[in-house]
Amino acid sequence: MGHLLNAAIGISISNILEFTGSVVRREILFNDRGVGVEKLVYAYEQYLAKNSELINFLETENATSQPLLDNLYLWGSNSYTNSDQLKIEINKRVVQWESEMTDYNLKKRNGEDVSFENYPELKIWEIVRNLSFETQFKTISRLGYFPELKWYESDFFDLGQQYIDIGVKSKTFREEDGAILSDLKKYALADTIVRKSDGTALYITQ
User: Fold this and answer.
1) Cα separation, 44 vs 50, whole angstroms
2) Which of 35, 76, 181, 199 could disulfide-pair with 39, CB 3.0 to 4.6 Å?
3) How far apart, in whole angstroms, are the C-alpha atoms of residue 169 and residue 185?
4) Could you tell me the pTM of the whole model?
């Protein structure tokens, strides 16, 4: 709901500006990486493996009235919350995903012919990502929003990581318990984490 609210606000503002004569360029940013996405990837894998617990959940009355991906995310999220072992597993997968995606992006920017097929974590992620985008694009269209440009976090999160490294060297950022934080006390502003202790990026990293 939060994403839809933000989208509605953005659509409304862009429409008003356009109506008053402004030149408007509509863009959209997709968060296609991180713990939330890996929860869905995990649930999708369990769906393919016909996990009995998941299948039973999908057959409940509430689940049968909801889209499959919504149910998979809900089940994956609940499983993550209720299992410390699964939290460790999924968090490790985020680390692995970032490692593979950083390598993929670097090769792609260098003009190399590279495919997700060469990366185990990216291969299954791409399948789930595309399934998710099918429904997201339909929702966006129903809202009457047709962006000229689509941005994907997976394409540039690693560039944000590079700027964090620069910020650490210049002491713009500081390290605390393995995580990297902003250092804004002199501006009377609260600090925020820009890189988790396991080295992975956050939404703000971009």
Assistant:
1) 10
2) 76
3) 18
4) 0.87
Instruction: State which H helix or E strand residue 142 sits in.
Output: helix 120-142
The kind and range of the H/E element at 35 are: helix 35-48
* Of 100, 125, 124, residue with least CA distance to 114: 100
State how far the Cα of 154 lies from the Cα of 100, in Å rounded to an integer: 11
Give the Cα separation of 197 and 7 in Å (integer). Answer: 31
Cβ neighbours of residue 125 under 8 Å, at least 6 residues apart? 37, 41, 97, 116
The letter for the amino acid at 61 is E
Q: What percentage of the chain's residues is helix, strand, coil (to nearest 5)?
A: 65, 10, 25
DSSP 8-state class, residue 141: H
